[in-house]
Design a protein that fits this description.
Chain lengths: 246, 338
């Protein structure tokens, strides 16, 4: 596999995306809104604790809920960008000249995977960074007796973001390689990605917070992601993409 | 067309990928027993065998759904046949290890230009040039030469979405030529273009042949095929005919001759039939005749007409068009029992 071709496809997709104002708005709006919600809810929790309306335990649950919500960023953004990348090549009829170059199927797949990963996972990293920083500042300045989830909590969130971003990317690339329409590709990709996101939320919000819970949940998510990545790599073939069926 | 382009395109160019493809003196593309079926449908292409020679313009003709685009996709290794095989410059398209060489030796112009509308013309060319492994300097030099020849170099930094159809087609042709392939595969190259743009592209295609390129094109425009191509294949899922346009006309039609008479009359038709004409009719002052052996029959026929009192003004062969050949072949294909 030649990385220069992978990078060239990714750069081209970034260049195209940068000119699509509607898509850019959606990709920036949802992360910005969720980040704002995270910061605001942390601030509100701080005030409620200081006012004596919330216990430390209740505050911890509220903070985790706002953090888990940020995992929507890699799920939605990676799905939206991943679905667009192949379907728009088909609808713009640009796939045929692209496949007539020496590019290999795997190079095309990885080139197409870079933008959704960067936009989804990168956006999530940025959002978590901002919300964690805000949480540290609010709680420290209020001299409250609870600790904001520290570096371990941040690490877990970043691992989950990465896995959800990878899963959403590969699912959307697989589905969009077999779809002719953007809406169909996005719809079916969300049908797969959102239940996984819901499962992660359920595990981390409902089950007892412990290393065992975290480790098992992350391991299961990693196994599912690896399985989907394998299937996508195996089934991402030029004939199928070009003709819609093998 | 302004000068300067084709000398550069047809000959050695720094960084040319074509230089890396081993030269084969014989045939450029050999297709053997090609069949392509899609699930739940009759074969799009069935047992098609053809050979495309170095330096010729080869036209694929056929009605909509005849399998032209499928054939071009198989010839350019975009899809694999479900039966038979294709060799491009001696390289089997089924061998995945040779795909780099095959794709570098072919320049593809799809039916739809397939350019990235939101990117500039130059960024489009840069993208495809890089995928072909060209250096930045080569991409720049070749883009400049080719875009200048089409008089659109000044528009290189404009987005494709601002271009007319003809300009987009020119950029797509430049993209196909950028890596200097020895063989061009053009799907409907002049379809939908205005006469000026169509002429520019026709001139370009002829110039490429003069530079030694092999050109395979599919077209609905029979006049173009007649004027441009050295050989023509007529398809309707399977191969109906393959030959030069001139020989196809000869093979499919008897020699038709028009004799203009000073004072035509119905009796002239009777005389012609009596002299052996297979068909004879009057069109105004012209007697139109189908003569299986024109050279042998005309002297006797002329004498008989003169003896019957007709004055002959001139005798002229009637030239058949490729369109007539095409329609006759398709008609006979549609009624195979007759």
């Amino acid at each position: 596999m030649r990385t220069d071709r992978v990078w060239e496809v990714a750069l081209k997709d970034f260049a195209e995306l940068s000119t699509n104002r509607a898509a850019l708005f959606g990709l920036i709006f949802i992360p910005a809104l969720l980040t704002l919600l995270g910061v605001a809810s942390t601030y509100m929790v701080t005030r409620e604790i200081a006012a004596g309306h919330l216990s430390a335990g209740q505050a911890s649950v509220a903070i985790y809920a706002s953090l888990l919500l940020l995992l929507l960023i890699p799920t939605t953004n990676s799905t939206v960008v991943g679905s667009m990348s192949v379907v728009l090549e088909k609808s713009g009829r640009t796939l045929e000249p692209l496949l007539a170059t020496p590019i290999r199927d795997r190079e095309l797949l990885w080139g197409k995977a870079v933008p959704p990963l960067v936009i989804g996972v990168g956006g999530a990293y940025l959002a978590f960074g901002i919300v964690f920083l805000a949480g540290d500042i609010f709680l420290a300045s209020a001299h409250l007796p609870i600790e904001y989830p520290g570096s371990v909590g941040l690490f877990v969130m970043l691992v989950l973001s990465t896995l959800l971003g990878l899963l959403s990317t590969f699912v959307s690339l697989l589905i969009s390689s077999r779809s002719k329409e953007l809406r169909t590709a996005q719809w079916f990709s969300f049908i797969v990605a959102l239940p996984v996101f819901g499962g992660v939320i359920a595990v981390f919000a409902i089950l007892p917070q412990s290393w065992v819970t975290y480790s098992v949940a992350v391991a299961v998510l990693a196994a599912v992601t690896a399985g989907i990545a394998w299937v996508t790599t195996d089934r991402f073939e030029r004939v199928t993409i070009l003709l819609g069926s093998a | 067309m302004p000068g300067g382009l084709y000398l550069g395109v047809g000959r050695s160019v720094p960084g040319s990928m074509a230089a890396g493809v081993q030269a084969h003196s014989g045939d450029v593309i050999v297709a053997s027993d090609l069949t392509r079926s899609y699930r739940g449908a009759p074969p799009a292409v069935e047992r098609l065998s053809l050979t495309i020679r170095r330096g010729e313009i080869f036209a694929l003709l056929g009605p909509n759904g005849a399998g032209k685009t499928t054939t071009l996709r198989m010839l350019s290794a975009l899809i694999q046949p479900t039966g038979g095989h294709v060799e491009v410059l001696g390289l089997d398209t089924r061998d995945p290890r040779r795909l780099d060489e095959i794709h570098n030796s072919l320049g593809i112009l799809p039916e739809v230009t397939g350019l990235y509308e939101s990117l500039t013309a130059y960024r489009n060319l840069q993208f495809f040039g890089r995928l072909h492994g060209l250096s930045e300097a080569t991409i720049y030099e070749r883009s400049r030469a080719l875009l200048t020849s089409f008089e659109i170099w000044e528009r290189r930094n404009d987005k494709i979405e601002t271009f007319s159809k003809g300009m987009k087609q020119k950029v797509a042709v430049v993209r196909a030529m950028l890596h200097d392939p020895p063989c061009l595969i053009l799907d409907e190259p002049v379809s939908g273009l205005d006469p000026e743009a169509a002429k520019t592209l026709r001139d370009f295609i002829l110039e490429q042949r003069r530079c030694g390129k092999t050109i395979v094109l599919s077209t609905h425009n029979l006049d173009d095929a007649d004027r441009l191509s050295d050989r023509v294949a007529i398809l309707r899922s399977r191969l109906l005919a393959l030959d030069t346009p001139a020989r196809l006309k000869e093979q499919l039609f008897d020699r038709v001759v028009a004799i203009e008479l000073a004072r035509p009359g119905v009796g002239a038709v009777e005389v012609a039939r009596a002299a052996g004409a297979q068909a004879a009719k009057l069109e105004g002052r012209r007697l139109i005749l189908d003569l299986p052996d024109a050279e042998g029959m005309l002297p006797d026929l002329n004498e008989r007409l003169i003896q019957a009192g007709y004055r002959i003004i001139y005798v002229q062969p009637v030239v058949r068009t490729l369109e007539e050949v095409y329609l006759k072949l398709l008609e006979s294909e549609a009624r195979p029992s007759e």
